[in-house]
Amino acid sequence: MMGRSLYLKIISAVVVFGSWEIGGRSGVSFAFPPFSESMVAFWVLVADGTMFKAYAETLKPLVVGIIISGILGIILGIWIGLSEKFDWLISPIFIVMQSAPLAALIPLLIMAYGIGLTSKVFVVCIMAMPVIVLNTSAAVKNTPTNIKEMAKAYQAKYSDIIIKVILPASSPIIFAGLRLGVSAGFIGAILSELKITPTGVGDIISFSRSIADYPSMYAAIFSIILLAVLFLNILERTEKILFKGSNQGYVSD
Amino acid sequence: MNKENAVTVKNVYKNYGDVEALRDMSLNFPKGELTSLLGPSGCGKTTLLKIIAGLLPATSGEVIVNGEIVKDPGPDRAFVFQDFALLPWASVIRNVAFGLELRGVAKSERESIAQKYIGDVGLKGFENSFPHELSGGMRQRVGLARALSVDAQVLLMDEPFSAVDEQTRRKFQEDLLNLVKDQNKTFIFVTHSIEEAVYVSDQIALLLPRPSRVSEIIRPTSFKNKDVDSIRRDSEYLDIVDRIWKSLRSYVE
Fold this sequence. Notes:
The structure holds 2 protein chains of 2 kinds.
Chain A: H1 2-25, H2 35-47, H3 50-82, H4 84-99, H5 102-113, H6 117-141, H7 145-153, H8 158-195, H9 200-210, H10 214-242
Helix pairs in contact in A: 2-10, 3-4, 3-6, 3-8, 3-9, 4-6, 5-6, 6-8, 7-8, 8-9, 8-10, 9-10
Chain B: E1 5-16, E2 19-30, E3 34-38, H1 45-53, E4 60-65, E5 68-69, E6 77-80, H2 92-102, H3 107-120, H4 136-149, E7 154-158, H5 166-182, E8 186-191, H6 194-200, E9 203-208, E10 213-218, H7 235-249
Parallel strand pairs in B: 3-8, 3-9, 6-7, 7-8
Antiparallel strand pairs in B: 1-2, 1-4, 4-5, 9-10
């Protein structure tokens, strides 16, 4: 099983990067270099340390934003899922946030919080939080009634029902939301560096674009994807350790 | 007939909005016996059971268990659910011990108690299996072990065998007869199967709908001490089955 999924991953990587290489070589555009050239640029950026310095900058708003979104988002989501009143009060904010054109709102954020770290953290949060909150609340609301009733019949306290029934039952969907939120947070971090002040990886992207060094630009984009995939994998592992068995499927058939 | 009552239902009314689910229901459940609540669907038998469990509030009237008025679920009652209501992410042993876990019994103690009841219901060797790995009948055995392990005086069973196959069901009915004999507990058993009710009960409360009421209380006598294999051929058994069907017939569409 494990071997097969690894094969599939390799095949999919070969197909994607292969078509990138072919597309780049066939000369679609001067601005679309082949995979190999981008990789060379990637190594150069890694070797001279530019990439590490860039990530030291980019990771600041990203990590802070994701931690805030994760903790606050899950707490708010649980609360919304448990209380109809709170749902009525808070949910619309996140639904609006999720569909708002963020790039257009950035000038507002800059006016309010300046061009520093705060604004960037905000951008990450606006991107990451809605999907975390909405997934968590949906998962909490959809906890099967029969096991909640069972816990009640065996005299569970309200806190027991939340901790021992609702949370483990919701954890797969909460983590799905967290994964989506983290991906969105990555987009938010880069967006903030392109739109607020060019620092970190966003700086590599905009600088290399301005001097037409497209391989470096793609190398930077590639590095973001690589890091996001790595991070999501770590998250998945954590979920498996933390909520062992929650993926066992529901017994309702 | 002068047995002490473990559970007394006194003039209980239950309305869901304009719908009258129970009207002036009064019933006695003698200690150490199995009483069936039998009736066509919509006669309020599950509603009555949940009121006794403390899961539903009665609109008026009271339920007295061992001399105390029921307000909430209590340690004197344990519930067996029609759809098992197991925690899908928890192993058999954790599911069985869940009632004790909610009461704050220490892990080693509750697991040794659970271990005993897992053996009693015939699931030895499945302690670390997960519910989705078990058949329907085995899942209900887990539900039964969970109810037994909290050592409640009253066992409330809501159509516990309706989701298992016919052969398993017969085995369950035989096991239930032995359980009633061995354990000095009071059983309240909801079913829609006439044969099942007559087979397992010391007392059958026949409920009729529109408005919901107790139409008859039947106490089988002659075959109670017979061997499980000959009950179904007993003439009183057959007569009672016939008699119940005659009263129910007009209520079945």
